[in-house]
Amino acid sequence: MLKKRLKLSVLLLISCCLLQPLMAQYVMQLDSAQAFPGNQVFVGIQIHNASPVTSFQCDIPLPGAVTTEVGSVVVNANRAVDHLIVASIIQDSILRILCFSLNNTPFNGNTGEIARFKLTLPTETMEAPLPLLNALIANTSGQNVLTSTIAGVVRAMGPLNVIISSNSGTVCSGQSVTMTAVVNGGGWNPTYEWTSEPSGLNGGQASLTFAPQSSINCIVHVTDGFQNGSDNFFIETVAPPVANAGENITQCYGFGVSLTGSMQHAQYSSWSGGNGFFEDVGALQTIYHPSEADLAEGSVGLVLTVTGANTCPEHSDTLLLTLKVPVTLDAGVSAVVPYQTVYTNYDAMAAHYSMLQWESRGDGTFSDTGNLHCSYTPGENDLEAGSTWLLLTAYGNSNCPSVTDSLLLIVLSEDDNIMLLPTLEAGVSDTVTLDILVNNRTLISAMETSITLPAGMTWLEETASLTERAQDHITDIQFNGNELQLIAYSQNGNPFLGTEGSVFHIAFQTGSQTGTFPLPLMQSALYDTNGMDVLTDYFDGIIQVLLTNTFEMPESQYELSVRLQPMPVSEESHLQIELLANAELQLTVFDITGRQLLEMNLGNLTKGSHSIPLIHKINTADSHIRIMLLRFSLSDGTTTYKTIKYF
């Protein structure tokens, strides 16, 4: 009778095919189980039901080498009422389980384990799924209400192995590093605990990211509930590179800036910034040549960047370069001061200075030695010598060097009567007006002189004329070769008006030659109203023909300036050269007669500013009015650049 009822119940369960509404959930689930190889584990069967159910059935294919005992299949007493459970092994090692109530009694509860069975694991490690096949869940009406199944997994676990994996074993101090504990074998869902030597590291995840400040030994402890494992990983930290560009610099424009950078924990360095150029961008100690754009900005940042030999990022440091405008100075033109007259300099010019200082080579006195346009009262020695040099020094701002310029002051005595020619500037093939100046202490009624024009220069006829100092004076002018003879006199013996200033105007044209040329006075005389020659001294003139674009070498390649100490001081002077391109140059210096004073091989010079030291004593005998004339020649072997300067 029991076999008939069992058979009827089985047929009843198989025939159930009606589905429940979609909102109700009826799930059959196999638990996963793990143990060491050769051990036994229990696998639970759970049913989650939205309404009362009375029976279930399922087939569970067993993985290879995994076995079970039919008698190990039991129903959960907490959910069963009068339920019976039957298990058997059918073809292909499939465990079939059927659980039902002869009285159609529902299971207790609506979730949790409803039955279990025992598995014997193989002696080798393995992991395989435990699927649910042909599963049924019947309600009190005999309907199959199953909505889904969840398979399980069985695992014969091996030894627990732990290895720490890191994206780097050497990092820059303070740089982030990520470590991951990689687990092989062992059980499911291991737990992690991170520690370190020295202490400070902690965490409970498989991966950990942190930024070590110093070298550290990282340790991870792993447990899976059955066994424990651990591993350690040493992270070495290296110091990051440090750049030090140096202290901020305030420098006078026109000179190279010495940079003395330093670095730590680095192998490579590079300078950048500014609008000028570095002689060697990769050297810590190098020279920076500012540009006019730097000067216009007033200050620029020069950046030293250093790079280490590891993963550390590069590091930069910046110094502020502040540029000061160099001193510009002109003491004024040479002048003549009448007897017992105070000389006031209105021609001096200076800019970009912090302080001015006038001094005299004679024994006179200044009204204010710090005033640009001060007055000077000649002393007895000045009067006796007939002249003195006045020196003006302008001290630069910050570290800009001082600059000194001078002028010759001719001091007239009570009976001095002098004739002189001025210093002129002109261009090539230019028209020049020349004044013949007469400073007299006695009445002068007539004068004569002869002026020798430099070769290539031509007097413009009909241009000689008397100035407003003349009364009824007439002229006699002769031009022979390059010598211009001038005579002016009054038939009535009337004197020239005034005691100083121009008497004659003449005009001439320069030639194609450039340079500085003397304008000597010859056969000169000043006659008083008694016809006596009372000329006491005369001073030659100078004409400087300015450089033009007709030079053999383009102006754009070299820019030349000269700075010399005022005579008669024997000190080091400098030739300033501004190169717009690299060049190998030969320097030769001559005096106005063509006598060679100095020859220097300057070697290979880089683009930028260069200050070439010169030593030459200015000899007062080199010129009648004690003006030194120098001719400078720069040659690169192919072309030559020439200029003439006078001091």
Topology:
Layout: H1 2-14, E1 26-30, E2 33-35, E3 40-49, E4 53-61, E5 67-68, E6 74-75, E7 83-90, E8 94-101, E9 113-120, E10 126-130, E11 133-139, E12 148-150, E13 152-156, E14 161-166, E15 170-172, E16 177-184, E17 191-197, E18 207-210, E19 216-223, E20 228-238, E21 242-244, E22 249-252, E23 257-260, E24 262-264, E25 268-272, E26 277-278, E27 285-289, H2 292-297, E28 299-307, E29 315-324, E30 328-330, E31 335-337, E32 343-344, E33 349-351, E34 353-360, E35 365-366, E36 375-377, H3 380-385, E37 387-396, E38 403-411, E39 417-420, E40 423-426, E41 431-440, E42 444-452, E43 458-459, E44 465-466, E45 474-480, E46 483-489, E47 502-509, E48 515-519, E49 521-528, E50 537-539, E51 541-545, E52 558-563, E53 572-579, E54 583-591, E55 596-605, E56 608-615, E57 629-635, E58 640-646
Parallel strand pairs: 1-12, 2-13, 15-20, 22-29, 31-38, 39-50, 40-51
Antiparallel strand pairs: 1-3, 3-9, 4-8, 4-11, 5-9, 6-9, 7-8, 10-13, 14-16, 16-18, 17-19, 19-20, 21-24, 23-27, 25-28, 26-27, 28-29, 30-33, 32-36, 34-37, 35-36, 37-38, 39-41, 41-47, 42-46, 42-49, 43-47, 44-47, 45-46, 48-51, 52-53, 53-56, 54-55, 54-57, 57-58
